[in-house]
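Lipoprotein NlpI, Pseudidiomarina piscicola. Tokens?
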Amino acid sequence: MSFNRLGWMVLLGCLSISGCTLTPPADNTSLGHLVLVKPQTTDGRFELEVAKLTEVISKESDQLEAETMGQLLYRRGSLYDALGLVTLARIDFNRALDYQPRLADAYNYLGIHYTQLSQFNYAYESFDAVLELEPDHPYAYLNRGIASYYDQRFDLAVDDFNSYFAAQPSDPYRAMWVFLAEMEQAPTRAMENLAKARLEHGNDIWAWGLVDLYLGVMTESEFLQSYVTQGLSADETLAERMCEAYFYLGKYKQLQGQWQSSSVYFRLALSTNVHMFLEHRYASIELERSQQHVDAQRSE
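Tokens:
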């Protein structure tokens, strides 16, 4: 579904003048249009590289310089992470920092893992270390913002997400994270800012369709039928696309208070096995949150 510039200006004007918060259209048939995908399989090349790195680390550790050893451990940790072996990954990231204490990317991974474990103080320390070592790190503001979001420190989350958004405002995912954090504080302002971002920075990236969905410009069924399989790039799998789509559809359902449907979407995001994507990493947290609401509703 297309929405021209004039339409977006009308929408933005409605939000600014009336102060209204758009209510996405109810759509009880959307689950019938689900795109189900085969879980992403393990990349055998990753496993082979892990085996080779393990052999080098085991046999040549006494002969390697500290910087080289740190890099090898970091590389194996990132491979473990991609394979979903997060405990082994965390061990290697910590060991890598023993050898190379200024390895910003290792701190970034550790911050993500601590966020997943809800160990937020450790997460903040890790992301602060990233920004101290590498102020222009491409993902530290996003990841620290996510830690603040799940720690319910929404003012800090908004600040970090806005910094991340400002670096590349044409990226719809950045606009959505700003929106999700702002919705926890000022829903009307969140909708206004999201509509403004869509008007000023929207492009042909498929995920702007999610923004349209959040703004109520299209229904859930229209999104599922028209956007989720559109324009897959050569280096993108359907499982990767659907991991993202399922996650943000789950967030959309949460905003509507449809906790059972959101649980379905987060389970589907987890089922894709796209371990490297942040949407897969945090789907378990979101699933637990949605399930708590479902259980509370059942006990009423």
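The two ends are 40 Å apart (CA to CA).
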